[in-house]
Amino acid sequence: MNLHLQSVCQLAFLSLCCVLISVRQSDSTFVPGRCLCPSTQNGVRGQLKELIVHQKSASCNKITVIVTLKSNNELRCLNPDSPLGKQLIRCWNRAHKLGRDPKLCLKRRRRGGRGGGGGGGGGQRQRSGMGRRGHGRRI
Predict the structure, then answer these.
(1) How far from each other are the two terminal CA atoms of the chain, in whole angstroms?
(2) Residue 51 contacts residue 88 (beta carbons within 8 Å)
(3) Of 18, 94, 101, 108, which is most buried, counting CB atoms within 10 Å of its CB?
(4) 96 forms bridges with which residues in the sheet?
(5) Quick check: pTM over 0.70?
(6) Residues 6+ away with beta carbon under 8 Å from 40
(7) Rounded distance, CA 36 to CA 66, Å?
(8) Domains plus CATH for the chain?
(9) Can you give the pLDDT of all 139 residues of the chain as single tens digits?
């Protein structure tokens, strides 16, 4: 009986070694260090349709920011260190923390003061009549 138990243990050990060797030499689909975006850009033109942010993971050691353009449904990878990338990441994190829809991050705020609407905001400054050459002077 002792001989039989010893041969069973040896067979089990040999089988385990064979399995480990075959797993070690087989091709694996998981490759660490592979990110979804091999190259990024600092900004995009046009309206954005969708936003996806992937945090750092075992397969990629960078935060990945992917936006979809509204005009042609094209995916673009943004640099997470660019101003737009940082803004979208902050908004994404805030939206998930508060349980809101991250698509709200894609609506760009319009600057006030456009269209003749009063004070404050963007646009050009008004110049006083005194500062221009020949205009506003009376002789």
Answers:
(1) 126
(2) yes
(3) 94
(4) none
(5) no
(6) 65, 77, 78, 79, 80, 82, 85
(7) 9
(8) 48-106 (2.40.50.40)
(9) 566 777 777 777 777 665 656 655 554 454 556 888 888 999 998 888 999 999 988 888 889 999 999 899 999 999 999 999 999 999 999 998 988 888 888 776 555 555 544 444 444 455 555 555 555 556 5
